[in-house]
Amino acid sequence: MVTTRTPLIAGNWKMNLDHLQAIAFVQKLAWSLKDAKHDFSSVEAVVFPPATDLRSVQTLLDADKLELGLGAQDLSSHDSGAYTGEISGAFLRALDVQYVLVGHSERRTLHSEGDDVVASKVAAAHRHGLVPMICVGETAADLEEHGPSAVPVAQLRASLTEVPADAEIVVAYEPVWAIGSGQAATPEQAQQVCAALREALVEIAGPERAATTRVLYGGSVKSNNIASFLREPDVDGALVGGASLDVAEFTSIVRFRSHVGV
Ligand code: 13P
Q: For the chain, which domains are there?
């Protein structure tokens, strides 16, 4: 099937790089992509810095007219008020943030964010004109007990209960066992689950929305395996952790089309 989905390569920096390091990194990345004559209209590249870096990175992107997209790693489910330490989607939008990660396994596990919290954060992102990048994925134990797609599909369904069916979203399938482990899923495994997620989207949001929604794979993506994932018909990009912190490596991932055999 011919797809009109522009591939999306997202770099989740997690809790790495302060605002000064972020400025230096984004400048180098922009130069590196420019040197490689990267066509941003054919592959979208987005960075997700820590919240304290967003203003600096946004100022740099704006001043130098860089075509990199900007995402945040989290947002509050509330809009404003007495929520110490929280960051409103409205504040992110005011910084021209386009995307926000919701439901990352590190937040589900380390911050006890369950399906209800994820759904209300997806709704908050939608309210403020941010595109939620909804992360779903099974643990090794889930895989053993329920097979490959059941848990990610259930998480996706639960995350969409508070938004209209036509809300714009990006889905990121990140098997928990593949995150930071060096043990990526196989392209066939990624395709199987991404296809199941798209089928669920057909039921939830209709065939048109399902056909235009990007479904990414994440978990130990590197420059040497990115092309194999992007060859799969239902994998529309990657959510990259560790390898997004290396300019040459991330450039090569964004430039996956220049790899042999793609
Ligand atoms: P790694 O690419 O380091 O495995 O991390 C994946 C991830 O969690 C991105 O959100």
A: 8-258 (3.20.20.70)
